[in-house]
């Protein structure tokens, strides 16, 4: 237990922030999984819609500091390549 008031507050805040960070990472991971599953799924329209939602989730995660901007660009490129059916997409 913290002896100083500010340290106790900092501990509370870090617990709250941890839950926010975990939620944001979970949302991002689920969006990526759904987009990858869309390739095996239905029509191209649905996959386009999910790809758009994934791009939005990736951009938000960059803004929030969860991902580096180059990592988000890498995810976007790989998913777009996978959904368009490139023969060299090795995800």
How would you describe what is shown here?
- The chain has 91 residues and is mostly helical.
- The chain has a single domain (5-84), classed as Methane Monooxygenase Hydroxylase, Chain G, domain 1 (Up-down Bundle), CATH 1.20.58.
- Helix content is 80%, strand content 0%.
Compact description:
The protein has three helices and no strands. The chain is an all-alpha fold and 91 residues long.
| Low-pLDDT segments, ≥5 res | none
Question: What's the total number of strands?
Answer: 0
Query: In the CATH classification, which architecture applies?
Result: Up-down Bundle
Amino-to-carboxy terminus distance: 46 Å
H/E topology pattern: HHH
What does the main sheet amount to? none
Total count of helical runs of at least 4 residues: 3
How big is the Rg?
18 Å
Structural class: mainly alpha
- Assigned CATH class: Mainly Alpha
Average pLDDT taken over every residue: 84
| Shape type | elongated
Number of spatially distinct domains: 1
Break the fold down into its secondary structure elements and pairings:
Blueprint: H1 5-40, H2 44-64, H3 69-84
């Amino acid at each position: 237990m913290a002896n100083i008031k500010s340290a106790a507050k900092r501990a509370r805040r870090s617990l709250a922030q941890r839950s926010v960070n975990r939620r944001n990472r979970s949302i991002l991971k689920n969006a990526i999984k759904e987009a990858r599953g869309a390739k095996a799924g239905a029509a191209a329209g649905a996959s386009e819609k999910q790809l758009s939602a994934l791009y939005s989730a990736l951009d938000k995660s960059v803004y929030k500091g969860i991902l580096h901007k180059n990592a988000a660009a890498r995810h976007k490129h790989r998913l777009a390549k996978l959904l368009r059916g490139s023969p060299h997409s090795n995800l």
